[in-house]
């Protein structure tokens, strides 16, 4: 099995996409992450849903989870509203990492190794200078457990 056999069209965003819009897309389509494209339409990064949460959850709650409990329920339920006016650029990890990008000929083991190494729930599949789509962790696992 190759990447070309598991790839599906996948939503993408740009660095300037409002991060709240990215959160809505993640939620509406039940996605583990989004492909972030550069100005040429090629993958620049992967935005996992956890990075959106990292941007939305106040630092003090991340540093000391007990402090999250002192926020009243009404405000706690609306924590994503803090994303208003912010962009995908702000949600991306600060440190450069290996990008989970491959070509259509990658094997299932190559895909799995890339996901594991990059801690990414999806791999962008690029053929030449064209984004084909992505292979998700779910698609990879579904195939792997059925064989």
List keywords for this structure.
147 residues, alpha/beta, CBS-domain, three-stranded mixed β-sheet, 6 strands, 20% strand, CBS_dom_sf, CBS_dom, CBS domain-containing protein
Q: Could you give me the name of the CATH homologous superfamily?
A: CBS-domain
How are helices and strands ordered from N to C?
Answer: HEHEEHHHHEHEEH
Query: What percent of residues are in strands?
Result: 15-25%
Helix content: 25-40%
Overall form = globular
Would you report the number of β strands? 6
Please name the CATH architecture: Roll
Rounded to an integer in angstroms, the radius of gyration calculated over CA atoms is: 17 Å
Spatially, the strands of the biggest sheet line up as 1-2-3
CATH fold name, please? CBS-domain
Q: How many DSSP helices?
A: 8
Count of spatially separate domains: 1
Structural class: alpha/beta
Chain-wise SSE layout:
Layout: H1 3-6, E1 12-14, H2 19-28, E2 33-37, E3 43-48, H3 49-56, H4 59-63, H5 73-76, H6 88-91, E4 101-102, H7 108-118, E5 122-127, E6 130-136, H8 137-146
Parallel strand pairs: 1-2, 4-5
Antiparallel strand pairs: 2-3, 5-6
What does this structure look like?
This is CBS domain-containing protein. It holds the Pfam family CBS. InterPro entries: CBS_dom (IPR000644), CBS_dom_sf (IPR046342). The chain is of the alpha/beta class and 147 residues long. It has one domain (3-146): CBS-domain, CATH 3.10.580.10. The chain has eight helices and six strands. The strands form two sheets. It has a three-stranded mixed β-sheet with strand order 1-2-3. β4 (101-102), α7 and β5 form a beta-alpha-beta unit. The radius of gyration is 17 Å and the shape is globular. The termini are close together. The mean pLDDT is 88.
């Amino acid at each position: 099995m190759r990447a070309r056999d598991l790839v599906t069209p996948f939503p993408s965003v740009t660095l300037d996409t409002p991060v709240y819009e990215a959160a809505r897309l993640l939620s509406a389509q039940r996605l583990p992450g989004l492909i972030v494209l550069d100005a040429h339409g090629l993958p620049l990064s992967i935005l996992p849903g956890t990075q959106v949460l990292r941007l939305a959850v106040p630092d003090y709650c991340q540093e000391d989870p007990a402090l999250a409990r002192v926020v009243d329920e009404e405000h706690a339920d609306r924590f994503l509203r803090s994303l208003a006016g912010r962009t995908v650029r702000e949600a991306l990890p600060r440190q450069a990492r290996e990008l989970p990008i491959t070509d259509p000929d990658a094997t299932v083991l190559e895909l799995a190794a890339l996901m594991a190494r990059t801690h990414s729930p999806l791999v962008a599949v690029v053929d030449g200078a064209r984004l084909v789509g992505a292979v998700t962790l779910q698609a990879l696992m579904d195939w792997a457990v059925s064989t």
